[in-house]
Amino acid sequence: MGSGFSFRVKFRIDHTNRLQCEQSQCDLVDPASGKVARLAVTGKDAAITESRALTLTADGWDDEEAATGSGLQYESALRRALVRLRIGAVFGREPYGLGPPQDQLGLVVFKTLPTSAGARAGAGVVAGTLVPVCQLEEVFLAALRRNVRINEREDLAMDLFNAAMFAGPAEAKFVSLVVALESLAEPAPRGEAARCHVRSMIELTEGCANLSDKEKQSLVGSLRWLHADSIRQTLRKMVHEKLGERRYGDVPAVKLCEKCYDIRCELVHGRKVDGKRVRENINHLEHLVSDILSAPVLLDVGPR
Questions:
Q1: pLDDT of 70-85, one tens digit each?
Q2: Virtual CA dihedral for 263, 266, 272, 275, nearest 10 degrees?
Q3: Half-sphere exposure (CA, 13 Å, Cβ side) for 82?
Q4: Distance between CA atoms of residues 69 and 242, nearest Å
Q5: Averaged over 296-304, what is the pLDDT?
Q6: Are 129 and 17 in contact, with CB atoms under 8 Å apart?
Q7: CB of 202 closer than 8 Å to CB of 224
Q8: Which of 43, 104, 210, 217 is exposed most, by the fewest CB atoms within 10 A?
């Protein structure tokens, strides 16, 4: 096709996962609209299974604005799908716009150019977890159909999840995953009796003659946080609301969240943490964070 506008979403997946497809490109067809999005490797003749740098391309839009709107929708669906499949991905945060489509991560919109449809078969030996591309297609198309916007909190949490998937040491990955959960937390106000008690403590602190102004400011700042539930309480409520009685191994979701939050606090605040505790829980934690970010939009598709 040589007219109209296209978009391309370029991304890079983490080093522990691969999408299993022995071709250099694969079409993801939306039955509802008939639109075709092409998943392909970037810049080399290789199978998708061998590649970490990939693109999702689609064309057929009459103008730049329509292509940009659809591109944002497809990119959002792709981000949700990869998180659901527990695949870390970097999309970049570079500005959208016309320009050389091969140069930047994320979404670019460009005038449609003639393309060649050749696809290479065969792949070499690949290390890491292989995720069949048909799973990506299932989850991606479900996200595309449901078209639920990624809000600011989810956007940050997905970035933290992806950063965790690229992290080296297990402890760094573990902390990033818990922080991804924390970034979704919205503490609710405590009951009136509790807030009244906090206000009285603030008044006592402000009126204490034995404290310097700086000490008062520091203590009052900490006390004001007590007007709302703690992060631990908030995480427990959020996990229960989103995941209910779901279990990870033999551990209920809420218990796993509490356990991982406690380990995270110990790691961050300098306590000695047995590496075995991190290793025993990190895969379940990764699964839980993926589920939280998928609920309720995609929790019924993809990995169970």
A1: 999 999 999 999 999 9
A2: 20
A3: 25
A4: 29
A5: 84
A6: yes
A7: yes
A8: 210
Helices (H), the chain: 64-84, 133-146, 152-166, 170-182, 192-206, 213-224, 231-243, 253-268, 275-294
Cα 256–chain centre separation: 19
Over range 51-80, report the average pLDDT.
94
Containing 89, the helix (H) or strand (E) segment is strand 89-90
Would you kindly state where each structural domain of the chain is located, as residue ranges?
5-150, 170-186+229-294, 192-227
The pLDDT value given to residue 297:
87
Q: Which two tokens stand for residue 28?
A: 């993801």
* pLDDT for 64 beyond 90: yes
Peptide bond before 303: cis, by omega within 30 degrees of 0? no
How far apart CA 81 and CA 86 sit, in angstroms, is 9
Cα gap 113→81, rounded to integer Å? 28
Lowest mean pLDDT of 43-57, 117-131, 224-238, name the range.
117-131
**What single DSSP character describes residue 6?**
E
Q: Which residues pair with 239 in a beta bridge?
A: none
17-20 and 5-13 as β-strands: parallel, antiparallel, unpaired?
Answer: unpaired
Task: Judge contact between 6 and 59, C-beta under 8 A.
Answer: yes
Does residue 31 have a cis bond before it (omega within 30 degrees)?
no
State residue 32's pLDDT score. Answer: 81
Name the burial class of residue 131, with classes exposed (0-12), middle (13-18) and buried (19+) by CB atoms within 10 angstroms of its CB.
Answer: buried
Count CA atoms within 13 Å of residue 66 on its CB side.
10
Token digits of residue 222? 């900490």
Enter the tokens of residue 277. Answer: 């505790």
pTM of the model: 0.84
d(CA 149, CA 178): 23
The pLDDT of residue 128: 56
